[in-house]
Specification:
Layout lengths: L1 E3 L3 H9 L7 E4 L12 H7 L2 E4 H6 L3 H16 L7 E6 L3 H9 L6 E5 L6
Parallel strand pairs: 1-2, 2-3, 4-5
Pfam family, one: ADH_zinc_N_2
Length: 119
């Protein structure tokens, strides 16, 4: 299984290492600025499965999607669902935050906050 949020050459490289007949490729972003190019003839010949974030999220009926959202909100309100935040950076430090992301040293969200105005 490969999960691709980068696209472009990185996504193409991930596709090449998937096992024929059982490889699964999840695409959900294009941080490189372009989606991973998918060649349907190659995918079919190799027996790969391609899934996208929207396909995963929206394959359920609307009522089931709503039930999932309501459950997630209940869990959040009860304190049993907490987001994983790696770091919160001041907007002026955005370059440092981007370096951490590029260096792949983060686990969880990296948030930028605007400067707080003085009273």
């Amino acid at each position: 299984m490969a999960l691709d949020a980068v696209g472009g050459e990185v996504g193409a490289g991930a596709l090449t290492v998937l096992r024929d007949g059982a490889g699964r490729f999840g695409t959900y972003g294009f941080a490189s600025g372009e989606w991973t190019t998918l060649d349907t003839a190659v995918i079919s010949r190799r027996g790969l499965t391609i899934v996208g974030a929207a396909g995963i999220a929206f394959h359920k009926p609307a009522a089931a999607q709503r039930a999932d959202a309501e459950r997630a909100l209940r869990e959040l309100a009860a304190g049993r669902l907490t987001p994983r935040i790696h770091a919160v950076w001041a907007l002026e430090s955005a370059a440092k935050a981007h370096t951490e992301l590029a260096d792949r040293t983060t686990v969880g969200a990296v948030l930028l906050r605007p400067a707080l105005s003085s009273p």
